[in-house]
Amino acid sequence: RLLGVPASDPAATEARAFMQLHGGAIAAPSWAKFWLTVLGVHEWEGVNSIPAEMWLLPNWFPFHPGKLWCHCRMVYLPMCYLYCTRFTNPYKFSDTTVCDLRSE
After folding, report:
1. 25 and 16 Cβ atoms separated by less than 8 Å
2. How many CB atoms lie within 10 A of CB 47?
3. How far apart are CA 66 and CA 60, in angstroms?
4. CB contact at 8 A, 20 and 2
5. How much is the pTM?
6. HSE (CB half, 13 Å, CA atoms) of 62?
7. Closest to 57 (Cα-Cα) out of 46, 44, 68, 69
8. What pLDDT is stored for residue 38 in this prediction?
9. What is the Rg, in whole angstroms, of the alpha carbon atoms belonging to the chain?
């Protein structure tokens, strides 16, 4: 849908039916909820917390994010920023695709 595929497209219809059969956005994995929220389709209240404060722990702490695999670190830090600022699409109420997704 974000690439301009209409809601009536067979692939979009099949994907929507699959998602609804499996609980919809509420039952989606946390990363899906995160990106749906950034897009403006979901609300931040439904996203698990991503505490940026973990970066303030001393390096010797066993769960310091700096000890994560490099690709995890590169994803975790920007996700922390977006979560802490509660960033969301500024056009979420005027973008027709986002409004359509919210109603679907």
Report:
1. no
2. 20
3. 10
4. no
5. 0.79
6. 0
7. 68
8. 95
9. 17
For residue 37 the two structure tokens come to: 């929220």
Do 104 and 75 meet the contact criterion of CB atoms below 8 Å apart? no
**Got the DSSP string for 34-86?**
HHHHHHTSS-GGGS----GGGGGS-TTSTT-GGGS-HHHHHHHHHHHHHHHHT
Residue whose pair of structure tokens reads 């690439």 in the numeric block: 3
| Residue 71's pLDDT band (cuts 50, 70, 90) | confident
Contacts of 2 (CB under 8 A, 6+ apart): 39, 97
